[in-house]
Amino acid sequence: MEQYIQYVLDSSVFILKGSILTIQLYFATILFSIPLGIVLALMKISKFKFLRIAIGFYTWVFRGTPLLLQLFFTYYGLAIIGINLPAFTAAALTFIINYSAYLTEIYRAGIESIDKGQYEASKALNMNYYQTMRRIILPQVIRRTIPPTCNEAITLVKDTALVVVIGMGDLLLSAKELFTRDFAITPFAIAAVVYLLMTTVIVYFFRKIEIKYSIYE
Amino acid sequence: MKMIQANNLFKSFGTHTVLNNVNLEVKKGEVIVIIGPSGSGKTTLLRCFNGLEEIDSGIITIEGEIFSQRDQSKKDMVSLKQKRSIAEKLGMVFQHFNLFPHKTVLENIIEAPLTVKGMKKSDAVLMGETLLDKVGLLDKKNSYPSKISGGQKQRVAIARALGMSPDIMLFDEPTSSLDPELIGEVQKVILDLAREKMTMLIVTHEMRFAKEVADRIIFMDEGKIIADEKPSKIFDNPEHPRIKTFIDKITTRQSNFQD
Q1: B positions 82-141 inside 8 Å of A (CB)
Q2: Does the beta-carbon distance from A216 to B87 stay under 8 Å?
Q3: Which of A72, B30, B60, B120 has the most CB atoms around it within 10 Å of its CB?
Q4: CA angle, A136 then A142 then A147, to 5°
Q5: Burial label, A11 (beta-carbon count in 10 A; 0-12, 13-18, 19+)
Q6: Residue B91 in contact with residue B164, Cβ under 8 Å?
């Protein structure tokens, strides 16, 4: 028994080390794709037809093809034409572009759900476009889109496992290595627990912001 | 001094003409109530005065400055920048209040003074509190709009518009979405403003209130102003049969309602 506990501890440390990369990729994606999603959403509803079409094409492509394929494309595909990206850069870039596409559509829908009276009131108070968006519309959009953003944030935790295919040693790969070495099921159980822990923290965090922002309802 | 001068205003939405050669003059301190059947162009006219709608042709002058000048489909001769500086002279109150739900009552009032006028926070707060006191809602300053009644919301909306120190106030059916028992508190605030000689244009269906507050009543029908008279004349001795029918219909309904 003692031996088993020691084995679980050692395995956990090994898997947690692997999860550092998962966490780095996670934060890189979240930190860039949320602001990017907001900016692209504003562009997608702008009065410039070219922007609307360009962003529409972008979300169509990146939501319509597998993330795995996109990952292959940036890492292996671009290498063929001479663009050699380090694995982490390739992964982060792909995840950011992919997740921004989903978030763009989420925020676009959020912006469009705000009553037009809010724009009219802002205009009647002589606020300009930037002031109206920054102070009146976007704070309400962010509140409304917390639940779908949380969904994306949870999916992202699990999607990070895809980086295994471009040879990155993440949480899942560490578990897999232990499995191959020991032929035991425990490493997978530990990996599952680590994923669950991460998603639990994320859900908790989003719940907190949701409560904070619901104060006015 | 003429606060608003409108000449030959035309506007249509698609094939529907909403303003059909409207001419109007508003003097300083005047309270003008616009009445008429729905779809007659009352609200559109009001919204053209602060740029929420664009006229198709005609000229709108606000306090002697041209605010909008168009000649069928051509571009407005007034730049956006000029429009903005002129529009600052008008405040507007909406039928559905349009308060900012994520901001407290006080924050609603000080938002534009802070961001648009660059007012100092302490000055803005002081001004906001004075305005809230004026509309009788100082005790609600830290409440969110969802926590107050419709009548209170509309009083906050009035205070918010006043926060930008307008010379002219536009009211677009300010009591139409209120429960009957809440209408009075909003009308009282507007009557107080009339007493202070605020220049106001009010679109309403409340005939008793119109009679009480108005210096002039404008009757619109199918995009035209068909009467521009003192309240006594319109209500007691209307020339136009269309006006008589309309007023009879509305007042019967409203007095039935009150009995």
Answers
A1: 84, 87-88, 90-92, 94, 96-103, 111-112, 115-116
A2: no
A3: B60
A4: 150
A5: buried
A6: yes
B185-222 pLDDT, tens digit each:
999 999 999 999 999 999 999 999 999 999 999 999 99
CATH of A2-216, one of 2.60.120.830, 3.10.180.10, 3.10.350.10, 1.10.3720.10: 1.10.3720.10
Domain ranges of chain A: 2-216
What long-range pairs does A72-76 form, CB within 8 A, spacing at least 24? A72/A165, A72/A166, A75/A166, A76/A166
Tokens coding B79: 């730049």
A115 to B94: CB separation less than 8 angstroms, yes or no: no
B217 touches chain A (CB under 8 A): no
Per 3-state DSSP, chain B is made up of helix, strand and coil in percentages (nearest 5) of 40, 25, 35
What confidence category does residue B246 fall into, taking pLDDT thresholds of 50, 70 and 90?
Answer: confident
**Contact: B98, A123; criterion CB under 8 Å:** no
DSSP H helical segments within chain A, as ranges? 2-44, 49-64, 67-72, 78-80, 87-112, 116-124, 129-131, 138-144, 146-159, 171-182, 186-213
Q: Pick from B133, B125, B91, B134: which is nearest to B106 by CA?
A: B125
Model ipTM value:
0.92
Stated as kind and residue range, the H or E segment containing A167 is none
CB B85 within 8 A of CB B71: no
Contact B70, B12 (CB under 8 A): no
